[in-house]
Design brief:
Blueprint (H helix, E strand, L loop, with lengths): L20 H9 L36 E4 L3 E4 L1 H5 L4 E8 L22 E10 H8 L7 E12 L2 E10 H4 L5 E6 L2 E2 L9 E3 L12 E7 L6 H5 L2 E2 L8 E2 L6 E4 L4 E2 L6 E3 L2 E10 L5 E7 L5 E2 L1 E2 L10 E9 L2 E11 L21 E7 L2
Parallel strand pairs: 1-10, 15-22
Antiparallel strand pairs: 1-2, 3-4, 4-7, 5-6, 5-10, 7-8, 7-9, 11-12, 13-16, 14-15, 16-20, 17-18, 17-21, 19-20, 21-22
Bound molecules: the ligand Nc1nc2c(c(=O)[nH]1)N[C@H]1C(S)=C(S)[C@@H](COP(=O)(O)O)O[C@H]1N2 and molybdenum atom.
The ligand Nc1nc2c(c(=O)[nH]1)N[C@H]1C(S)=C(S)[C@@H](COP(=O)(O)O)O[C@H]1N2 binds next to β5.
C-alpha cells in the first residue's frame, strides 16, 4: 500500500520554523537519556533512551515464536532460546538521528539534541548459533530481521525491517537478546526478543523480533534503502549508515536553571566528567574546551567492555564569568567530531556538545 497523504520525502524546516507539535509528539514518546545519567557505567533501563517508529506491539511470551528461514525453516520458543548458549555484552547504543535538532536547516523528524544514547548489558543467544541451527544458506549475502511492529512511513506501509551483511550477523557478539540489565526486556525495548549489534547505530538493533530470513541480494526494504542513508539531495542513493561515529558527552556541571538549562557553578575547582564512545576505531582520547583551546582529558580504560562508553574527566578551575564548555572524542584513526555534518535526513551529527555555564560566587 502507498498512502500519498503522508509526507514524502522528509521535509526540512523553513528558516526560523520552531519545533512543531508533530515533532513534540514524537519527542514525548521517544525520550532521551537525562545527561546526568552519564554517571552510570550501565544505564538503568528506565533512563535509557527510546526510539519507536510505530506502536509498541503486544506480544505474548507464552505463544511467542521466532521463525528462522535458513536452509530449513526452524521456529524457536523463548524457552528454547533461553536453553541455548548465552552471552552478555555491555553495549552503548545511540540513535543515528542523535544531534538532528541542532542542524540548520533542521530535518523534520524526531528532534534529538544530544541525548539519544544509553548503555545496557544485553543477555541473549549469539545470533550465529540460531542461524547455524536453521542452516546457513550458502547463497546468502545478508540476513533480514523483521519486527512485529507495523506502520506507515513516508507513504510506505511496512513492518519494521533491517538487514545485516553476513559477516556482521556471524560476529560472536551479535546477540538475540531476551534480557536487558539482567531482567526480561521491557515492552519499549523490544520484549520479548531483540537484535543487538554492538558498535552499530540503533536502527540496526531490531526490536520485537519475530522473523529472520537469508537473502541472496542486498535487502531493499524502506529502513535500509530509503531511510538511514546519508544524502544531500532527496533523489540520491546515499551512503548506508552502519557504525557509530565517535562522540563524547559531559554531565552538565553544577546545577541548572529550570527553563534555559544554563548551569551554575561556584568559583574554584570543578571536575568535568562524562563518557565517550566510538563504534568505529577505538578511542584515542577526549578533549575539553572551556574557551578557545582544547585540552586533553583523562580517559579511563575500557575494562574489557569494548562496545561500551568510557569515562573521562578533566579538572577545570572555574573563575567568575560565562562559558560554553565543549568536549570531543578522537579515535585511533584520527577521526574526531566536527560541526560540518549536515545531511538531508539529519543523521550522525556528532558536532561537539555545548554546555552553557555561568560561574558566580
Ligand atoms: N522493531 C523495531 N526495532 C527498532 C526500532 C523500531 O521502531 N522498531 N527503532 C530502532 C531505532 S531507530 C533505534 S535508535 C533503537 C532504539 O532502541 P531502544 O528504544 O531500546 O533504545 O531501536 C531500533 N529498533
Ligand atoms: Mo534511531
Amino acid at each position: 500500500m502507498t498512502t500519498q497523504e503522508f509526507s514524502q520525502p522528509g521535509r526540512l524546516a523553513q528558516d526560523g520554523e520552531g519545533i512543531s507539535l508533530e515533532e513534540l509528539a514524537l519527542a514525548a514518546r521517544n525520550h532521551g537519556m537525562p545527561l546526568e545519567a552519564l554517571r552510570y557505567d550501565v544505564t538503568p533501563a528506565g533512563l535509557h533512551y527510546l526510539l519507536i517508529h510505530y506502536d509498541i506491539p503486544d506480544l505474548n511470551p507464552e505463544t511467542f515464536q521466532l521463525t528462522v528461514n535458513g536452509t530449513s525453516t526452524v521456529t524457536f520458543t523463548l524457552d528454547e532460546l533461553r536453553a541455548m548458549p548465552s552471552a552478555t555484552v555491555r553495549v552503548t547504543m545511540e540513535c543515528a538521528g542523535n544531534g538532528r535538532a541542532r542542524l540548520l536547516p533542521r530535518p523534520v523528524s524526531q528532534p534529538w539534541l544530544v541525548e539519544a544514547v544509553g548503555t545496557a548489558e544485553w543477555t541473549g543467544v549469539p545470533l550465529h548459533e540460531v542461524l547455524t541451527r536453521a542452516g546457513i544458506d550458502p547463497a546468502a549475502v545478508e540476513v533480514v530481521f523483521t519486527g512485529a511492529d507495523h506502520g506507515i512511513e513516508r507513504g510506505v506501509e511496512q513492518d519494521y525491517q533491517r538487514s545485516l551483511p553476513m559477516a556482521e550477523a556471524m560476529r560472536a557478539e551479535t546477540l538475540l537478546a531476551y534480557q536487558m540489565n539482567g531482567l526480561p526486556l521491557l515492552p519499549q525495548h523490544g520484549f520479548p526478543l531483540r537484535l543487538v549489534v554492538p558498535g552499530w547505530y540503533g536502527m540496526a538493533h531490531v526490536k520485537w523480533l519475530t522473523r529472520i530470513d537469508f537473502v541472496a541480494e542486498p535487502f531493499q526494504g524502506f529502513q535500509q534503502a530509503t531511510a538511514y542513508r546519508i544524502r544531500q539531495e532527496p533523489g540520491e542513493q546515499g551512503e548506508a549508515i552502519t557504525r557509530i561515529a565517535p562522540r563524547a558527552l559531559m554531565v552538565p556541571p553544577g546545577f541548572p536553571d529550570f527553563m534555559t538549562r544554563t548551569r551554575v557553578v561556584r568559583p574554584g575547582p570543578v571536575e568535568l566528567t562524562g563518557r565517550a564512545w566510538s563504534g568505529r576505531a577505538p578511542l584515542e582520547g577526549v578533549e575539553v574546551s572551556t574557551g578557545q583551546d582544547w585540552h586533553a582529558a583523562i580517559l579511563e580504560a575500557d575494562a574489557g567492555h569494548q562496545w561500551a562508553w568510557r569515562r573521562w574527566r578533566y579538572m577545570w578551575n572555574a573563575e567568575p564569568g560565562e562559558y560554553t564548555l565543549k568536549v570531543r572524542a578522537v579515535t585511533q584513526d584520527g577521526e574526531t567530531q566536527t560541526d560540518d555534518t549536515w545531511n538531508r535526513g539529519g543523521f550522525t551529527n556528532n558536532a561537539p556538545q555545548e554546555v552553557r555555564v555561568v560561574c558566580v560566587a
